[in-house]
Amino acid sequence: MAALRLFARTRLSTLVPYYPGEDRLPSGISPVIDQIQKRWGTYTSSPKYTDPSEYTDYEVTKDPKEWEYVERVLKSKVIPAPCLENKEYPSGWKPPVAKPHDYPYYIPRTKNYMQPVYLEIFHRGLRRVTIVRKIHGDIWTLESELKEYIEKRVNRPIGIRTNELLGEIKFRGDYVNLVKAWMDERGF
Amino acid sequence: MLTLRNIVTKLQIHSKQVTYCTKAIVEQTSPTISKRSYEDENYFYQRPREVWLENIDTVERKKLGLVFLHPDVYAASPRIDIIQENVRWQRMYRFVCYAHTKVRSEVRGGGRKPWPQKGQGRARHSSIRSPLWRGGGVVHGPRSPTTHFYMLPFYTRVAGLTSTLSVKLAQDDLYIISDLEIPSNEPSYVEELIEKRHWGPSVLFVDTDDIMPINITEATDTIKHVNLMPVYGLNVYSMLKHDTLVLTERAARLIEDKILYHLHRPDSHKLMSKFKLNQQ
Fold this sequence. Notes:
By secondary structure, chain A is α+β, with helices and mostly antiparallel strands. Chain A has 4 helices and 6 strands, in the order H-H-E-E-E-E-H-E-E-H. The model of chain A has no long low-confidence stretch (mean pLDDT about 85). Chain B has helices at about 1-30, 70-75, 80-90, 155-170, 185-195, 215-220, 235-240, 250-265, 270; strands at about 30-35, 50-55, 65-70, 95, 145, 175, 205, 225-230, 245-250. In chain B, helix 6 links the parallel strand 7 and strand 8. The chains are: A alpha+beta, B alpha/beta. The interface of A and B includes residues 75, 78, 100 and 109 of A. Chain A: One of its GO terms (molecular function) is structural constituent of ribosome.
């Protein structure tokens, strides 16, 4: 910070120590400092764009064909839709196959085209909770079916918390892969 | 001169009436079906919400068509907890508490030791303004000004808007009109309109721009419970404060566009970081 303040001085003379031979301000009068502080942390304090001749040449065009190349560089405003064709993908990702009213319940994909199943770890890694979100329709049927599926595979009863208003089910324990496998079977 | 003016005004009135009639006939023959295609429409569990498109240029209600609205925005889960969080945030972030008490150093006097430390048989005291004394300073009292500014997480604010819009629509408190043009600038016209449509008593009209038609601006100027608002000012508190929310069709579409953009934008992680006052 101190270094920044030193560089922020506009005149070097204020930094140079006083030598008796030089013409300097009489002692007792402090030197005039034009600028006390300059914020270098922001680009707004850099000099403004003035003369276009100093920069690369450009011409203004309104050709829609050329604009396509610009659009390719611009950031997309939505997440681009992946190929939703139902086949094997190297990543293991599966497209949603189920239609909204195939089952009494429905779980749409997230905006990233992923399944809304998450693992939450808290209490210093002592508790693991699997969360299934974005559930529409009959959440209680879904809960009982998932419960049966998971309990069959882990051979023990599991704690479940269902919130109908939020459309969310929480399983006590890490069953993310089991839930995802179940969803893949159904095509969610 | 007077007669000439009379003739001119009468002509104007007649010409207006004529155009008005033709307009009405045209609208009757072709109802507008305002429907959009969405990228995720194959994955809707709920069907798009259907709302009548109404007019306000006559007191009588005319159904001009039907508007289909995105279920993620207008049929969201009625999260009253999120609505309450939003209302609390809107009340608190602008609230500055001016309650103030003085600490012992600020209370006048008390510089002198009231009596010697030892020998009097009395409790030791160093100042008459000590918090133990009556009329002394206050410990941990309210200090002015206390700001209560905080930011609600971005997506809680978005969910507040969708929840409130959905609740309003589900409770039959949201209406969609074609535009804000009314034939008269009399407040009585707006009052009659609201009475006839069973709206209100308090009504919030929302349009895309902040420059509204002159007639409705003049007519609602003196009625304090009927307000106009642009889309950029729409908020949970105002929607709840007014009994009825009346959107123009383009306003409803703009709200939908903006909220859907935020629900699907790829750079949402930036919005979810901590809010800093100096966001350079």
